[in-house]
Amino acid sequence: MYNLRYHVASLVAVFLALSVGLLLGTLVVERGAITRQRNSLVDSLRKDFRTLTTQNEQLNARTQTAEAFSAEVVPLLVAGSLDGKTIGVIDGAERSDGLAAVQSVVRAAGGRVIVLRFQRPGLGLGDAEVSRVASEAASPSGETGTIGERVARVLAAEWTSVGERPVTDALVGANVLAVEGLGSRDAIDALVIMAGEGESADSEALAVGTAMEGLHKVAIGAQSTKRATGVAASAFAAGLSAVDHVDTSMGAVSIVWILSGRAEGYFGLGEKAESAYPRLAATSEP
Length: 286
Hints:
With about 290 residues, the chain is an alpha/beta fold. Helix 1 (about 1-80) packs parallel to helix 8 (about 250-260). The protein is about 50% helix and about 15% strand. The mean pLDDT is about 85. It starts with a helix and ends in a 19-residue tail after the last strand.
């Protein structure tokens, strides 16, 4: 009886050992398979990464080449488009990013730039003293409406004609406006608005732009890709043309095409932009 029990116990031990061996063997095999799959996946990802890195380097090289080509072509596309034209640019006290780009392309097109810097939002007309000074200067013209509307209309008239500029001088004296390059014999042919107020264009700058359009002059709302001022979108909403990427080659051509009267609309990268640039084939003639 003792021998039978011992024999049964031995058989059970053998079966247990076989079961454990099979289990461990299965785990080892599965672990080996998982390891091989993991290594294969890692190798595949490394290969994909190397491929993407190479493609990205090639794409960057092509982009840099295209940008360099565009930068060299822009002066050829705009040359002579603004010959003899004087372009006013309303800038704000805060940096607008893009002023230098506008100045550069206007000059490349043969135009001259006059900077009209709003030292305070809305020309500070909300201040009682500034409003009084501006109102007194504007009153001889017989203008009606709010002080902002009156000042906007008078400024548009003063800047687009030669002679004395009492409202401009009054605002400069009140330290709310700075003028660079506007002499008594100068007259602005078109206006670029870059001054922002919050997330939109400066309200008084827009009013001046609208008044300019009423005098059959071109007015544009413009901004660069480096700072989302909202100037372009709000100018377009006010009925003006707009460019929201003046610091790019496409934006440079777009702004000259609009200033020269070859195109109108909203060009750029924003949601409301009609296209990135005007159709050059359809606007090649001034």
